[in-house]
Design goal:
This is Nickel uptake substrate-specific transmembrane region family protein. By secondary structure, this protein is α+β, with helices and mostly antiparallel strands. 22% of the residues lie in helices and 39% in strands.
Length: 296
């Protein structure tokens, strides 16, 4: 230590320099921790997770709102006051289910009961929240999600080294089969609900003739979305996507899934924001879940 002090001239000088170095290291570690904590909050998927996807009429199923995958998967902490839509659609009509939410419950965010037979299409939507990431993290996130509108905008504006500032919101759907299949259920499974970002199956995966080939179309603000990355996850083994497809010019992607297990599809899209000095992009995360759990 004596030789080390001699390089600084005195003990006081050494102490001051060492203190500055420790403070720089602490600030750097804190910045990394914040950046690492912020990225999963944005980049991880969000979805509706019924305990059972197939029910008898009159039965109920607990449901949680999940976020993340693999070791990072957890029950979402999203607040009740951020939910602007939670409803179910069937051949019997549409019902607002927001009054049945119990956000903050340790076991379930809701318990849904369906008295009548029919496929139930559940839809969920939140308002927007603000996020800001350091440039490196934000650029990695844009590349991983294939968000070309933001990548192009940042390059054109020479803002690649600027922090990423955006609002983000969630859209999620789930298909729950109540009772036996009926042909009328097909129109519910393939219904476009008008969500700002939406994954719409082109066939009913619960139909007896379903072969495991699942074509879907992605719509953004009511129009087919080309060039979006759509992932499919086996929710029983979800540490990484089973397959990633990019939508074609018609907004379509096709997946192969077995008629067992629980499945989640997800997509993210963004657009530059005009006239807001605090935000550069508006981003939407959207998902669709379905499953072939035993009827109970």
């Amino acid at each position: 230590m004596t030789s080390t002090i001699s390089r600084y001239g005195s003990l006081d000088s050494y102490t001051k320099q060492r203190g500055k170095a420790m403070r720089r290291a602490w600030r750097f570690a804190l910045a990394l921790a914040i950046a690492g904590a912020a990225l999963p909050a944005m980049a991880h998927d969000f979805w509706l997770q019924p305990e059972r996807f197939r029910l008898k009429p009159g039965a109920a199923t607990p449901m949680t709102f999940q976020v993340g995958h693999g070791n990072d998967r957890q029950k979402s902490l999203i607040a009740r006051n951020r939910v602007v839509r939670f409803d179910s659609l069937s051949v019997a009509g549409q019902a607002d289910r927001r009054s049945e939410l119990r956000m903050g419950d340790a076991n379930a965010d809701t318990v849904l009961k369906f008295p009548a037979r029919g496929l139930q299409l559940l839809a969920f939507e939140t308002d927007g929240a603000y996020s800001e990431l350091p440039a490196l993290r934000f650029n990695d996130y844009l590349k991983a999600e294939g968000l070309t509108p933001a990548i192009t905008w940042r390059a054109q504006k020479k803002a690649v080294n600027a922090p990423g500032r955006e609002t983000y919101s969630r859209r999620a759907k789930a298909l729950v089969q109540v009772g036996d299949y009926a042909k009328a259920d097909d129109a519910i499974a393939t219904r476009q609900l008008g969500l700002a970002l939406e994954i719409v199956p082109e066939v009913n995966p619960y139909a007896p003739e379903f072969t495991g080939r699942l074509p879907v179309r992605v719509y953004y603000q009511g129009q087919p979305l080309a060039g979006a990355m759509v992932r499919i996850n086996n929710l029983d083994f979800d540490s990484r996507p089973l397959e990633v497809m990019t939508t074609d010019a018609a907004g379509r992607a096709v997946f192969k899934i077995p008629k067992t297990g629980s499945w989640q599809l997800n997509v993210v899209w963004t657009k530059p924001v005009q006239g807001n000095p605090k935000v550069d992009f508006d981003t939407i995360f959207s998902s669709l879940t379905l499953g072939f759990t035993p009827v109970q």
